[in-house]
Request: fold
Amino acid sequence: MGMFFNKPVKAWGMHFDDPLMKQLFEACARLNMPVSIHFADPIWMYEKMDSTNDGLMNAQNWRIDLTKPGIIGFDALITTLENAVKNNPETTFIACHFVNLNHDMEKLGTLFDKYPNLYADISARYEESATIPRYMKTFYEKYQDRLLY
Reply:
């Protein structure tokens, strides 16, 4: 049990688009304070731990146990981010590590195109994007005002 605007709140399992977060996001907007959030983990942490998993070496150590209560999958997490960004257009959101969408930069581009209040930082995922240099050059040029480090 934690406190949220002086009210007791059971926060375990609360997701980013939970209605209880609305007051916080509105306060951040009023204060012109961006919300910086680490969102999800790389996709391979959610996938089967077998030879088809491209990130198996890291995933074995950092896997996400989707059988635990309140734990949702990657796509569902991204949906919670999109819901929060869409429902709080006056709040600036900065999602860390390309929103962990390195495997689907088109999705990140779509989110940028839809929501001018969404930004992403490029830290800790550069190595994944470095494998597609021509695509990333174009992406960086198109979204240069939305990417931070």
Observations:
- The helical segments are 22-30, 56-62, 74-87, 105-114, 126-129, 133-142.
